[in-house]
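Please decode residue identities from the backbone states below.
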């Protein structure tokens, strides 16, 4: 049996061998494969598009299961209630968004161009350009490995937060308690987008923040902005061989935020007077500019670096290992602590490694 390298299954193109590898193309196949691994007491790594994973160079010794179920079903569609659509976990996220925009299902257009599978979107409450999936998810059907039973979560039961949900909080070493089978979205019908909440996107569209635009235009502008930052997966662009943003934007108290220079970007960070900071700005201002790490004398030997288009992505320039990616991440994290006293935390799941 040939051994599958996780580097071939991840967008960062790093990671060692899988103990065993299989693909599940339907809900029944997912449940069967998960049960088989659990009954055998084997560690299990669930993988969708591999765009939010950084796996050890030693690989993953257990069973790696790729979720490859495809398609979606429209449950109901009318002008009052909108459309209720149930998407299979393995269905490519951006293909679904493209379909939604084309068919005037509004609400996910700002999430265009995010790599990966739909089943992973509720895990970290995928978001971009002022939107996240918590705004449109109605329910998530899962396989509960602890109880060996199907469990459906409503939106409020998922306890969505910034890049967070119950599904993520119950995942240990990439092994989730709840394996997502399908995701149900509730989307209003119409050619107009949800209100555009992100200033840069509103400017690009020529609308005020909070106004709506044509969803088609929103998708086009989001894809353009994302591509300019290396945030649309492209096999020909090394700046996209990453996990997207490597660090989450830190959420700090007003007191900590007040210590930063006046020009530091600040956003509301949820309740209790918390402030969300820009990790990209902190990294840049701590002296780590675009392309940091490209120098062959740097910690990674130039094999891994910050993207040349954006300071928040750590990229594989060709031939990088997971250790190389982490070496860059550590240098950046430590530099930001030294300069601002703020610790950045990784956004991707780290499997078999620590930062
Ligand atoms: C170029 C680029 C740009 C990106 N931009 C963004 C962005 O704008 N916003 C954003 O939020 N993210 C972004 N990401 C990160 C990533 O694309 C998202 O987090 C995406 O949802 C991950 O999907 P995936 O299928 O690739 O998940 P994977 O990387 O395969 O898995 C990620 C985690 O989810 C778990 N998981 C996957 N499928 C299931 C399932 N069916 N059931 C239970 N657990 C599951 C895995 O076990 C793992 O823990 C970007 C990544 C890249 C490479």
């Amino acid at each position: 049996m040939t051994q599958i390298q996780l580097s071939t299954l991840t967008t960062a193109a790093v990671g060692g061998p899988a103990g065993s590898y299989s693909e599940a193309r339907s809900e029944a196949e997912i449940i069967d494969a998960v049960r088989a691994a659990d009954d055998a007491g084997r560690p299990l790594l669930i993988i969708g598009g591999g765009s939010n994973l950084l796996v050890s160079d030693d690989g993953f010794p257990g069973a790696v299961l790729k979720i490859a179920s495809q398609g979606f079903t429209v449950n109901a569609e009318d002008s009052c209630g909108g459309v209720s659509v149930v998407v299979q976990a393995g269905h490519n996220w951006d293909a679904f968004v493209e379909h939604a925009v084309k068919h005037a299902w509004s609400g996910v257009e700002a999430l265009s161009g995010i790599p990966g599978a739909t089943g992973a979107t509720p895990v970290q409450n995928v978001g971009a350009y002022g939107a996240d999936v918590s705004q449109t998810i109605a329910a998530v059907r899962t396989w509960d490995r602890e109880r060996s039973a199907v469990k459906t979560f409503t939106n409020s039961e998922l306890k969505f937060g910034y890049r967070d949900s119950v599904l993520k909080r119950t995942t240990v070493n990439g092994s989730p308690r709840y394996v997502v089978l399908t995701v149900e979205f509730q989307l209003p019908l119409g050619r107009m987008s949800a209100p555009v909440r992100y200033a840069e996107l509103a400017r690009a569209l020529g609308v005020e923040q909070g106004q709506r635009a044509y969803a088609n235009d929103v998708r086009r502008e989001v894809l353009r902005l994302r591509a300019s930052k290396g945030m649309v997966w492209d096999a020909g662009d090394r700046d996209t061989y990453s996990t997207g943003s490597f660090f989450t934007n830190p959420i700090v108290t007003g007191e900590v935020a007040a210590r930063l220079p006046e020009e530091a970007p600040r956003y509301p960070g949820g309740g209790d007077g918390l402030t969300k900071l820009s990790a990209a700005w902190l990294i840049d201002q701590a002296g780590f500019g675009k392309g940091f790490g490209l120098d062959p004398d740097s910690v990674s030997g130039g094999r891994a670096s910050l993207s040349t288009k954006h300071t928040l992505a750590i990229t594989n320039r060709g031939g990088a290992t997971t250790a190389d990616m982490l070496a860059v991440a550590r240098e950046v994290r430590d530099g930001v602590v030294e300069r601002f006293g703020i610790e950045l935390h990784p956004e991707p799941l780290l499997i078999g490694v620590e930062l």
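Observation: Residues 11, 46-53, 67, 89, 114-117, 119-121, 123-124, 126-128, 171, 174, 176, 179-180, 231, 233, 240, 242-244, 349 surround flavin-adenine dinucleotide (CB under 6 Å).
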